[in-house]
Amino acid sequence: MVRGCKGEPEVVTRARVQHGAFGSSAPFERYLERFTNFMRSPVYNPELDIVAVTQEGQVGAFCIVWTDTINKVGLFEPVGTHPDFQRIGLGKAVMLEGLHRLQEKGMQSAIVSTFEDNPAAIKLYESVGFRIVNRLGTYEKDV
Description:
By secondary structure, the protein is of the alpha+beta class. It has one domain: Aminopeptidase, CATH 3.40.630. It is 34% helix and 21% strand. It is built from 4 helices and 5 strands. It has helices at residues 11-21, 28-40, 90-104, 119-127, and strands spanning 2-4, 49-53, 59-68, 73-81, 109-111. Strands 1-2-3-4-5 form a 5-stranded mixed beta sheet. β3 (59-68) and β4 form a beta hairpin. The protein is globular.
């Protein structure tokens, strides 16, 4: 089933899937605390935090969509699938629902970004109709 996140009542399972999807090295308790604070922030909208859920209630994939109502552009950030649920279509399902919700909110285009060395993400994004229009360099400096 694909639906909006239930917010704080579902924070543990939602944080766990994101923690696993990105292979976070942070202890889960710290990750959960930060994710809970994010859900409590005024920018968080559970309706735009889209999840794919198993019959047992386990969240397997997610995406959050953001709207720019002035430019009519939607942004997918972040998008992820827990390793236990990869390659079964859950990422595609949440992205298709995200596109639908963005369209309902009047967005005329959508963007998503990934690193060039992430073939799984590129394949997913292209499978729902995205195409590469820009390459972005990432710069780093120790301070």
